[in-house]
Amino acid sequence: MSYHPQQHRVVIIGGGFGGLMAARSLNKTPTQVTLIDRRNFHLFQPLLYQVATGGLSPANIAAPLRAILKRQRNTTVLMGEVTGFDLERNEVLLADGGRIPFDSLIVAAGSTHHYFGHDDWEKWAPGLKTIEDATEIRRRVLLAFEKAERETDPRQLQRLLTFVVVGGGPTGVEMAGAIAELARHTLRADFRNFNPATARVILVEGQKRVLSAFHESLSAKAKTALEELGVEVWLNCHVTAIEADHVMVTPDGGHGPPKRIDTATVVWAAGVKASPLGKLLADAVGLQTDRMGRIPVNADCTIDNRPDIFVIGDLANCPGPDGQPLPGLAPVAMQQGEYVANLIVRRLRGESPKGPFRYFDKGMMATIGRARAVGESFGIRFSGYLAWLAWLFVHLLYITRFENRVLVLFQWFWNYVTRNRTARLITNDPCVVKA
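The structure assignment produced for this chain is given below.
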């Protein structure tokens, strides 16, 4: 790969919200940008739960990185897996032996599932971070109903029709609500030997309320909305074991007698940790990551004494005004990406930076189901149908490509009118359904 000798080489690792925003912000600047990602597409993760429950197809929420950036003449997209850093030579190391030189490095590798020391639970309780995660969860959920159609043992039938979602944050709440709507509305006339509406959906949360990052009043409304959908909300309960056919839950903050939930389907939405790439970079620089695997960053998103290396998004431990790390949200990563790109350009022009990175918090929203959502923005709290419409609008606005927005909007309209979910496909599974 050749570069113009007078161009500043910017290498961006990760094509998520932060990395993509940084690349776009460097368009038409005196830089040569290289975006590296192990996948060839940008994924709109906030809507993965709709893929996992058959509401959307994977292609609706993903777009090829090359197509997004094809008009940026100063940008090259590389599909590759970063395995290390040679900071003495300012090079990024790839799994295939490639070495990509940089003058400025932006690391936006994102996050992965966090099982809090129980990584063996992952095979029974997949998380929701990738397209593969979503289609695997969709397979397990739909396959449970297919097996139930042939089941004659009442106890096994009950186990198949029990769905457990671990974690009461936005992903867990959205997932639990979507499964409940799938069972009670979408599938209501699809089976002959059992009633899908009898399915149990249990949301297990370790804290004393769901959506703990929201105001207490909104958390209470979210809980009520879930219960109206038929979701059982178990608060202040800790999961202590997950096996192929059951989950063990300890109530009362881990002090009560253990309870067994017989289930065939568990979804993990209880926590995330930074990408393992963060540890590789921290070791190369000589830093320690925090307990979530994030790298401490300076006020300008650089690390330690390396002004040429930036860490943004879920990988960065970037303190907010209250001293606590900023949340792993798409708006945080996007604002950091834009800030870092602007900082690099100002340096090239010999201009001083505008100041430290400051996150502009526009608020938070979470949807519980059809016409049910909660949100807060600039001190204003809202819920119900209005919040749901706002949630729809904001998510459409953040989807990267116009074509995807049109596809998602049409699919949402059709799902709303018919209560149908057209992407209810069981993939990557043998033709014979085993009981």
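Interim note for the steering committee: Residues 24 and 69 are 8 Å apart (CA to CA). The domain at 8-38+80-113+273-348 is CATH 3.50.50.60 (FAD/NAD(P)-binding domain).
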